[in-house]
Specification:
Length: 400
Amino acid sequence: MLFWIVGLGIATLGAVPVVLAILRAEDGIGVESDLSVYRDQMAEIDRDLTRGVLTEDEAERTRAEVGRRLLEADKRGPRSFSQAPKAARIVALVGVVLAVGAGGVALYVTQGAPGYPDLPLRARIADAADQRQNRISQEQAEAQAAVSLPQPVQPAPEFAALMDRLRAAVEQRPDDPQGFELLAQNELRLGRLKAARAAQERLLDLRGDDVTADDLAFMGEIFVSQAGGLVTPQAELLIDGALNRDRNNGRALYFKGLAAAQVGRFDVTFRIWSDALQRGVGEGAWRETILAQMPDVARRAGQDYTPPAPRGPDAVDMQAAADMDPEAREQMIRGMVEGLSQRLATDGGAAPEWAQLIGALGVLGETERAQAILGEARQVFANQPDDLRLIEDAAQRGGL
């Protein structure tokens, strides 16, 4: 009720000038207003002459022109305008009021939320807590997502053969954690979620108390994938376990922020992700994913957001490379390539980083290694045509 009272008051204040203009009765507008303007101009000329803004000749010419206009205005005499009848003015007044009122109500009904109560910050936080408390379970989420999950990727023949050998190897060595770790990662890339989960569960059993943050975060990712992108309570338990072991784990930080966003706490998501970016954690694919979603998260959280500057060598690094002899420069480049290769192998990365590695290896003449990484990149980005095109272009430039 208070909203409508305030709205009516604002509309009334806005209509007052229009009503006064319609009801104002003036029999005519005399010449005095024009004469007053010209007299003021005459006085202004004298002031400009005193201040030295105008010379005597300029002032004299200006006075002559203003005087001519003043005489013409005096000759015209009073001007009068006919006024509409009172009845017509009242009809116009009623029309204006109805148009403004009806238009405002129609706009609010179609674009606003009539009858919707205020939602203070405390109530919104309580609502988010309630949503979080009542999230569906992992089993329920998987049942709902089963009909919409994409079909597994059909790998290239060479990669399919490698996967068959890997599956056979872990069957022969059921106590080899490295084999199950590699199997889980590649099964997830192919979209074989059940197989990935089974392999990762076996890995967690084998490592026992020595389970790592990456192990738990990766299992959390599998849970989220099976749930159609929803971070369930069971998935968040795994994410929290990973962060308890390593608060800088990029994968876990991404899903922790995503869990907050899914219950409406974009302020919490913004705090988690912006802190991760500022501290330089969440490298590789998770950093790129966070960067892509941060503008929308910041808008929903009511925060200002400036993307961090692109990473790369600074002027000092460039100068140092220029001052090196060819052998030292090649060693430095190889060191950078090895660092990028290791990071992509452990944390993954965006398509431009894969393209950079493939192109660099091609230039260094390591064509066999570049070809192997190209095959892996084709599998990773098989369902992303734009990224795949970027990688193929890099391979072509590298002579592959």
